Amino acid sequence: MKTVESAVWFCEKIKAIRAAAGHDAEKLEALSLAPELVAEVADRFPDDPILVDQVRTAIELELPLARVGIFLLDGPPTDEQIAELQRRNESG
Q: What are the Cα distances from residue 66, in Å, to 7, 13, 39, 73?
């Protein structure tokens, strides 16, 4: 993100993608890979071509959580969700 405007857009876009996907991990991934995202970045921020990659990476990092039913749309993971993830990791 090269400007304050692009940083604000980035945060708003992440929130918008989360909201549009709801509690659907596949939709979350699809929205982050949509060609419309590339077009929007190219149109609004032509001097910041890696901005789309930054959005995609941010969502990609959320996907493992989303695939087990933890969506950052709802806020940070709860203590119970974290404990369940730890149990899953320990059991292999």
A: 24, 18, 26, 10
